[in-house]
Amino acid sequence: MCLFCKIAAGEIPSDKVYEDEHILAFRDINPQAPVHILVIPKIHLASADEIDEASAPEVARIFTALPSIARQAGLTNGYRIITNVGEDGCQSVRHLHFHLLGGKKLSEKMD
């Protein structure tokens, strides 16, 4: 079981900001912005490369919940959503996750 599966199962504690039957959102332990929340599906998908017709509804649920999660975090002036894929994309945990970043004017550069 991967790290995020263990967090979703409650085996490892997290600073939860949102949870429902399909999704868990929690604060990143190494924040890259004043607000840095990770949003994951509770089912295991290694990355965006594994999204298919069967798993697409799980990803859609995340994107449906993201505006509410952002508002609850006080992100009323905009935010960024990022997912990393694979080694060259700097994916550190092999479980699909979306970084919700905000709380300040973010850099236009994405490097």
Written account of the structure:
This protein is an alpha+beta fold and 111 residues long. The chain has one domain: 2-Layer Sandwich (HIT family, subunit A). The protein has helices at 3-8, 56-72, and strands at 16-19, 23-27, 35-41, 79-82, 98-102. It has a 5-stranded antiparallel sheet, covered by helices on one side. β1 (16-19) and β2 form a beta hairpin. The longest helix is centred in the middle third of the chain and has 17 residues, at 56-72. It is globular, with a radius of gyration of 13 Å.
List the helices and strands and how they pair.
Elements lengths: L2 H6 L7 E4 L3 E5 L7 E7 L14 H17 L6 E4 L15 E5 L9
Antiparallel strand pairs: 1-2, 2-3, 3-5, 4-5
Report the sheet-strand fraction: 15-25%
Figure out the total of helices: 2
From the spread of the alpha carbons, the general shape counts as globular
Main beta sheet: strand number and arrangement? 5 strands, antiparallel
Roughly how many Å is the radius of gyration? Answer: 13 Å
Q: What's the end-to-end separation, in Å?
A: 31 Å
Structurally, how many domains make up the residues? 1
Question: Which tags fit this structure?
Answer:
23% strand; globular; 111 residues; 5 strands; alpha+beta; 2 helices; HIT family, subunit A
Summarize the structure.
By secondary structure, the protein is an alpha+beta fold.
